[in-house]
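Entry: POC1 centriolar protein homolog A
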Amino acid sequence: EDPTLERHFKGHRDAVTSVDFSLNKKQLASGSMDSCLMIWSMKPQMRAYRFVGHKDAVMCVQFSPSGHLVASGSRDKTVRLWIPSLKGESTVFKAHTATVRSVSFSSDGQSIVTASDDKTVKVWTVHRQKFLFSLSQHINWVRCARFSPDGRLIVSSSDDKTVKLWDKTSRECIHSFCEHAGFVNHVDFHPSGTCIAAAGTDSTVKLWDVRMNRLLQHYQGNSVVNSLSFHPSGNYLVTASNDSTLKILDLLEGRLLYTLHGHQGPATCVAFSRSGDLFASGGSDEQVMVWKTNFDADYGDALKTQKSCSTVDGSHHTGVEMDSGIHHKKTKTQDSGRNHEQQEVEASLANTLEHIMGQLDVLTQTVSILEQRLTLTEDKLKECLENQQKIIQNKTN
């Protein structure tokens, strides 16, 4: 069954540049050239919030893994961290000397990586937004940067037509993939962390193995590809293109599965929800669309109990390396020694930890906001005292 359009959000006043779901799928964030970040509630009775703060176009948005923060990057050279539940509360920091094209959290929610037209990739702590280090080997605008799922690698894509893989610890470029014939708009890690996918103005999507640094799959389209997103199962990829279409690629079969028409004008961004049953897209038509993923009825089960690796024939297709990491990961949870209760206890522990992390996020953010306000107050006080001094001096003169 084809994916179906489920919701349609209108509220932005210019092209939508970025979309992302919160962990629980209750919220969807979008950024736009209209300088606003919007948080849409997926429940029909709840309304959308418009977050105003950026002085210029919002180029990228992303929820933190816990869903308690949203990061946004802008043409105003800043990054903002918002609390999506409190209307309009954010901390801002000057991240780059040019447009911030991409902002992304590490999977533990502790770091963010930003990419900019100043040709650098930078890594920051979420707490206090402390600058950690800069990666600067690209020779043109950097469009996108992402952490690997285990947080050890960073991948970046640029208008210099390269995709670069970095070691986070040594801060060195391990490899440059130079096979794109145009600008590389978007790049991301496969959920297994073993490969990356990149989308370019040369109308292609390319998948590389990051262990052997070799090309696994190549999809040739007929229009600029602006954005892509992996399904959490790792078996599918959705892309957004200038020809206004969204395309769903079956990575196991290595073929195009669906072409979806919804946007009028270029489709600029696309993202799967964390559970994979929904995906959202944004376009130059100022619209945000939410689609129901109907194309794989059993992927939910596949996520829980991934089929054993032995069923995949190595000669069958080029992408076999990509899913080996995943099969391995999923079957691990079925160790005969582990009983049901243990899993339940672990699940509730994980939930509690998730909640604590979320509360910490909010606290960090609140403290940060208070610090900013204090600085403002101090500045105002200083100004008043200086003015008083001047008045006294003028009087004595």
